[in-house]
Amino acid sequence: MSARHPYEFRSVLAGVETLPSGVSRPRHHHDEGYATIVLAGSVTEVSFAGRMYAEAGHVLLHGRFDCHMDRASGKQPLQILRLPWRHDRVEGQFYVADPDALVRLAEIDPDRASAQLHEDLRVVAPRDRYWVDELAGTLRDGSSLQLQVWAESRGLRPDTVSSVFEREFGVYPKRFRLECRTRLAWHEIMHSTSSLTDVAFKVGFSDLAHLSRSIHALSGRSPSDWRSMQAMRQQAQGRSGVRNSKKVACA
Questions:
Q1: How far is Cα 49 from Cα 147, in angstroms, rounded to an integer?
Q2: Per CATH, is 131-229 categorized as 1.10.10.60?
Q3: Are 67 and 129 in contact (CB under 8 A)?
Q4: Mean pLDDT over residues 160-185, rounded?
Q5: What's the pLDDT score for residue 159?
């Protein structure tokens, strides 16, 4: 990622959408979190959370600044419900027992449907994992392990590992790790009081300048901008809480 902002973010509208069977979308990016609930058909999605196959009742959760690619499978059209999702730390594949109830609620209020989804989520049984999935998990956790060392420990050629990973995830391991590390840093900036320098070293950047370039490239804003926005948001929430408490006291 360069210092400029290289990504074009796709917007997401809440509601039901039907896509033709076999539709494929190359790796793309979203700046807002959202949930995809599969209503009919099936889809394979590859994201920071890994390689996932989802069918009716399954839920795919995406935090902010997610990057993924999708391919509908089977002969049946793919029907999905999209909802807002603001729990950035909760990502990956889950399922719900009654997706139709979420559709009905989303027609009234998508935010209420999202809150209900959060309550209804159930864990999906883990799928078989292959070495490419193990590598993605290692990179996702911010490991600084060299790819050559990882490959040789499993009896694989580094160039084979790199090319297979790019084929499956749509990006080479080095880029995947950088994007994961940058998202980890963004979470720390938004949800901790650590200094920006401490955040940089905690998630594996060599220095603050490297962190700043990567955050700006992924999100379009600098770390200090994000920290300032979070502070203003917290102040606004605090003022709102004071006003509400005064109303209760007066009542």
A1: 19
A2: yes
A3: no
A4: 95
A5: 95
Per-residue pLDDT tens for 101-113? Answer: 999 999 999 999 9
Residue pointed to by tokens 């502070």: 231
Q: How confident is the model at residue 246 (pLDDT cuts 50, 70, 90)?
A: low
Amino acid residing at 229: M
CB hemisphere CA count around 177 (13 angstroms): 17
* Confidence at residue 3, expressed as pLDDT on a 0 to 100 scale: 45
Helix (H, G, I), strand (E, B) or coil at 88: coil
pTM: 0.87
Residue in the structure block whose two tokens are 């799928």: 127
Domain with CATH 1.10.10.60 in the chain: 131-229
CATH of the domain spanning 15-123, picked from 3.65.10.10, 2.60.120.10, 3.40.50.2000, 3.30.70.1130:
2.60.120.10
- DSSP-derived 3-state class of residue 125: coil
Sign of the dihedral through C-alpha 77, 129, 91, 8: negative
Return the exposure string of 26-49: e unless at least 16 CB atoms fall within 10 Å of the residue's CB, then b: eeeebebbbbbbbbebbbebbbbb
Residue with tokens 């902002």: 5
How much is the pLDDT for 47?
A: 96
- Give the residue range(s) of CATH 2.60.120.10 domains in the chain: 15-123
> According to DSSP H, which parts of the chain are helical?
99-108, 110-120, 131-140, 147-153, 158-169, 173-191, 196-203, 208-219, 223-250
